[in-house]
TrEMBL record:
This is Xanthine dehydrogenase family protein molybdopterin-binding subunit. GO terms for molecular function: iron ion binding; oxidoreductase activity. It comes from Streptomyces hoynatensis. Keywords: Molybdenum, Oxidoreductase. PANTHER family: ALDEHYDE OXIDASE 1-RELATED, XANTHINE DEHYDROGENASE.
Length: 687
């Protein structure tokens, strides 16, 4: 089924958050902190207030005139304009509201802020003296998991690989920048918002402003990507609502591309040391994976980077440890496949290094270490077809023809190589409610506070609803993107379709039951049923629930310049039931492209002098384009998993990026014989 809103999108009729124009609308512009740590001593708004059309200059004390309304934040990074403390460069210290965006921008430049700077530390080093091991990390995983005697097993292993990889901070860079258009009517707040989680945004804003959740309406009809950056409330959203309350008129705050780089989070840098011990038969005896990462002074966010190592390969001894250092930086947060993306880069490159040390084929090495139970916990798998993905991929990619010797492999002016890596991502089912409604004329309407961030969610939900109701897809209208439709999880954690779809399925079945009991008659006003998914699937830890995949890449590396070109790429995935193969393929390709981008292009450069990201636009923060991403294909295996939900959906939003960077890096090594352990791989690393 083609995308339902395709025509709206290609004709420009689909409206995004910054395209809503409300009567009497005004515009906000942020004044960012120019120092990474310290205090705001004074905000002088005299010149800014003299700019034509300026309505207010808000700051924590307002210079005695324009103090920002008080908030009740649960998350410290949302305590905006509430005090003088500065925790990162770019943190909002004031905000201008004006009749035009141009006026707001001009006035923001005229706001004079005096600082009391303090010494700062913004650059994560390989050995952070003040780092520590947190008890739990993002998504509730334990900070450390250990089984067996790793030290003894490593000492007794005939083959040991001990390697350290680094990955840089990365920016989500969604095509549509963040924006919020906020309006208060009495105690009711409406926000048109670029959002992955409208219901949760409503809950957060209600807490911040001390109003009931049902008095906050968050509307996200169309969203141009998010990759995690829109999966929780970021500062600009709060500022828009704050400004609207302060001036008593609707306010639009559209974040500029450059402001995006400090205001809407990023992926933490990592330093990862992996020690693998194996017998000469290739069977792992010890796996030790330790990751050092950063958070801000405001919040402890520790990415779950070593968690995939607890799931991937059979080993009698395992030690997986997260370490965290808190620096004077913006708070890192979720970005596509948090933890799994950097963690599987390191693990899957280390497995490639082990294969070379053993003179063993890297596909064969993975097959030999396939576990019967999840290694870190001993739980059975709800389903797991990594071996099927590896075998199918190897056959389709022509892996058997590969020269097993490490490079360089010369073909004229180019060196050529192929690489493989595994992919994995957890399957989640989150609390969600949906309503299904029958109208007298025979039509159905289904509502759930999910959101389509470009994935095809609206289309797949329509297919699932039609199937549950036993009608063709054009007999049902699915409405999403509005917080008022009830509790629903984010389009994040790859849990969207599994959760919304299960709730929709149950609501539709409940409605059919009601209809049957009523003899099939729909009364005048229609009838409606509500149903949901209940608690988080993690409360049932008796199964290990994941999707799997295998990534294959072929690269050409220019022998003189070191330029790396992708020649072809194949991702084979076993990811539960695929509701819509067309949009699923597109989403998995997008993930693979983002993985390629992380291997070769993406990386934020931190300026240690002022704490800024030096590259903060799309000219200097490179992301892979169509021209970079050539010859890529996706194969989806049949994969039945009864352990997650009755619709068999596992989720595919993140699986495609996992392992993709490792496959490319392993191919670069195969082509050149050079092992680059620090992403991104630059031409100068290969010359
Ligand atoms: Mo995704 S980083 O869980 O939105």
């Amino acid at each position: 089924m083609p995308r339902i809103e395709a025509r709206e999108k290609v004709t420009g009729a689909a409206r995004y958050a910054a395209e809503y124009r409300l009567p009497g609308m005004t515009y906000a512009w942020v004044v960012p902190a120019a120092v990474p740590r310290g205090l705001v001593r004074a905000v002088d708004a005299t010149a800014a207030l003299a700019t034509p059309g300026v309505l207010a200059v808000l700051s924590h004390d307002g210079g005695g005139r324009n103090a920002a309304p008080r908030l009740r934040p649960q998350a410290p990074e949302l305590a905006l304009l509430q005090g003088p403390e500065i925790a990162y460069r770019g943190q909002p210290v004031a905000m201008v509201v004006a009749e035009t965006p141009e006026g707001a921008r001009e006035a923001a430049a005229a706001v004079e802020v005096r600082y009391q700077p303090e010494p700062h530390h913004v650059l994560l080093s390989r050995d952070e003296p003040d780092s520590y091991v947190p008890d739990t990390v993002n998504a509730g995983y334990p900070g450390t998991v250990e089984t067996g005697d790793v030290d003894a097993a490593l000492a007794q292993s005939p083959v040991v690989v001990d390697v350290t990889y680094t990955t840089p901070p990365q920016h989500a860079a969604p095509m549509e920048p963040h924006s919020a258009t906020a309006a208060w009517e009495g105690g009711t707040l409406t926000v048109y918002h670029s959002d992955q989680a409208p219901w949760r945004t409503a809950v957060t804003l209600a807490e911040l402003f001390g109003v009931p959740t049902e008095d906050v309406h968050v509307i996200a009809d169309h969203v141009g990507g998010g990759f995690g950056s829109k999966a929780m409330v970021r500062p600009p959203t709060v500022l828009a609502a704050l400004a609207a309350r302060a001036v008593g008129r609707p306010v639009r705050l559209a974040v500029t591309r450059q402001q995006m780089f400090t205001l809407v989070s990023y992926r933490t840098p990592t330093v990862q040391r992996l020690r693998l011990g194996a017998g000469r038969d290739g069977r792992l005896r010890a796996v030790w994976h330790e990751a050092l990462q950063q958070s801000s002074r405001l919040t402890e966010y520790c990415e779950q980077t070593v968690t995939p190592t607890r799931v991937m390969y059979a080993t009698p001894s395992l030690r997986t440890v997260h370490r965290l250092a808190r620096l004077d930086v913006p708070t890192p947060s979720w970005m596509r496949a948090p933890g799994k993306t950097p963690g599987m880069f390191a693990l899957e490159c280390a497995m490639d290094e082990l294969a070379h040390a053993l003179r063993m084929d890297p596909v064969e090495l993975r097959l030999r270490n396939e576990p019967d139970l999840e290694p870190g916990s001993g739980t059975p798998f709800s389903s797991r077809n990594l071996t099927g993905c590896l075998r199918e991929g190897a056959a389709r990619f022509g892996w058997a023809d590969r020269d097993p010797a490490p490079g360089p492999h010369r073909a004229g002016r180019w060196l050529r190589g192929t690489g493989v890596a595994a992919a994995m991502y957890p399957g989640y089912l989150r609390p969600c409610t949906a309503t299904a409604r029958a109208e007298p004329g025979g039509r159905f309407t289904v509502r759930v506070a999910g959101v389509d961030i470009g994935t095809g969610a609206r289309t797949a939900l329509t297919q699932l609803a039609a199937e549950a109701l036993g009608v063709p897809p054009d007999g049902v209208t699915v409405e999403i993107g509005h917080s008022a439709y009830g509790p629903a999880p984010a389009a994040g954690g790859s849990a969207g379709l599994a959760s919304w779809g299960t709730a929709v399925h149950r609501a539709c079945r409940a409605l059919l039951g009601r209809l049957a009991a009523a003899g099939g008659e729909v009364p005048e006003g229609g009838i409606e049923e509500r149903a949901g998914t209940g608690e988080d699937i993690e409360s049932r830890p008796e199964l290990s629930r994941h999707s799997y995949g295998a990534q294959f890449a072929e690269v050409a590396v220019h022998a003189v310049t070191g330029e790396v070109r992708l020649e072809r790429m194949l991702g084979v995935f076993a990811a539960g039931r695929i509701v819509n193969p067309r949009t699923a393929r597109s989403q998995l390709l997008g993930g693979m492209c983002m993985g390629l981008s992380g291997a070769l292009h993406e990386g934020l450069e931190v300026d240690p002098r002022d704490g800024d990201f030096a590259n903060h636009d799309l000219a200097t923060y490179h992301v892979a384009s169509h021209a970079d991403f050539r010859g890529a294909e996706v194969v989806l295996l049949e994969d039945e998993d009864p352990g997650l939900n009755e619709i068999g959906v596992k989720g595919i939003g993140e699986l495609g990026i996992v392992g993709a960077a490792a496959a490319v890096a392993n191919a670069v090594h195969h082509a050149t014989g050079v092992r680059v352990r620090d992403l991104p791989i630059h031409p100068e690393d290969l010359r």
